[in-house]
Design brief:
Number of strands: 11
Largest sheet: 6 strands, antiparallel
Structural class: alpha+beta
Helix content: 40-55%
Radius of gyration: 21 Å
Strand content: 5-15%
Number of helices: 12
Oligomer: single chain
Shape: globular
């Protein structure tokens, strides 16, 4: 069926007020197909975000939307109690006519609608310390508002997503199989991983023992998943909740540091341009702890630097595993692309290991 016909079908299954004006492709995302809808109402124009969920990536769209519905309902209640603006400070799902938070079209695809957040913008690139700081405050605030949410009741939409022990086991299987004969070219990188087997257990063991609490985690803590108010320049809303599920607060913190506190691109070939940036690390720690406002346990605070090292190491393992398996998971745009990515991550890991005492001191300064 032609795209316009599908859009007509989908739009008709949601109870929008007023008369339809237009539908235009929206945003720079690469996962879901996104449109901005405009309607004329008696109160003026209202806009919405319509998305077709990518079922090749999100295999359980119903469970995914159950997670988002539960979490956003909780957030709206917290925002309302604090006297905030629940239409701008969290995602607001528009239900389909049958009451569900999604619609399955005649071709089997799943769609959802959110209220468009007016007067705010998401940015793809960090342009200043302030941008990075605002993202830190927002993700810390996200943790604080969900600190007492029963995380175990959420679906694990991507199983073992940050189970570093499993990631290490998958790496060893790929190394043993060496299906593409590439192991001989990466002996230094292989040794780097094998020397740190105990590191893979650090957070997993603490979670298993209950020393680190299960939290609601975002799992995609990029700057462009924050809406920044056009007038104040302050972060107001965390968006893209597709990967919200149970996890560790240290996963979200660590992944932010992994890509945000690096001086180089994730796939930089010249490793002399890649290093851990202690200034940006401090900027993020300050904002994150301000946003958390006491929601984290003493153990979580103590382990924040470990989260940064673990998430960076885990990502490097994943890149190296994919390289050994023939580059089937991460998209590559040149020969040895995943190997380049591996090396940047391992360079950052080594830098962070060398900076560990000062990283701990920064947390002590702001907690």
């Amino acid at each position: 069926m032609a795209e316009n016909k599908i859009l007509e079908e989908v739009i008709s299954r949601f109870d929008f007020p007023g008369s339809f004006v237009e539908s235009v492709p929206y945003g720079s995302g690469h996962i879901n197909d996104t449109y901005r809808l405009t309607f004329d109402t008696e109160e003026g124009r209202k806009r919405y975000i319509l998305q077709r969920m990518n079922r090749s990536i999100f295999l359980q769209p119903v469970e995914l939307m159950e997670n988002i519905s539960a979490v956003t309902s909780w957030l709206r209640k917290k925002i309302r109690e604090a006297g905030g603006d629940e239409e701008r400070e969290t995602l607001n799902i528009i239900s389909a006519r049958d009451g569900r938070p999604y619609y399955q079209d005649s071709s089997g695809e799943y769609w959802r609608v959110y209220l468009f957040i007016e007067g705010a913008t998401s940015y793809d690139m960090v342009k200043s310390d302030s941008d990075f700081y605002q993202s830190a405050v927002a993700f810390g605030h996200f943790q604080r508002m969900l600190a007492d949410y029963p995380a175990e009741t959420l679906h694990e939409t991507i199983r073992d997503f940050h189970n570093t022990v499993k990631r290490f086991e998958n790496f060893k299987k790929a190394l043993e199989a060496d299906a593409y004969g590439r192991a001989r070219y990466v002996q230094e990188e292989i040794a780097f991983v094998l020397e740190r087997e105990k590191l893979c257990h650090r957070l997993c063991d603490l979670q298993e023992s209950g020393e680190l609490p299960l939290r609601v985690t975002h799992n995609d803590t990029k700057l462009n998943n924050i809406m920044i108010d056009d007038q104040t320049g302050k972060a107001i809303c965390v968006i893209d909740l597709d990967t919200v599920m149970p996890g560790l607060s240290l996963n979200d913190f660590g992944d932010s540091i992994r890509f945000g506190a690096s001086t180089g691109a994730e796939d930089e070939r010249d490793l002399s341009r890649v290093s851990f940036d202690p200034h940006l690390y401090e900027v993020y720690v300050k904002g994150f702890l301000e946003g958390c406002d006491g929601a984290l346990t003493e153990k979580e605070l103590d382990m924040l630097p470990d989260g940064a090292i673990l998430m960076t190491f885990e990502c490097g393992i994943r890149f190296l595993t994919d390289y050994l398996e023939g580059d089937h998971y991460f998209k590559i745009h040149r020969e040895d692309h995943n190997l380049d990515r591996t090396r940047t991550q391992f360079k950052l890991v080594k830098d962070m290991e060398d900076s560990y005492p000062s990283m701990k001191a920064v947390v002590e300064k702001y907690k």
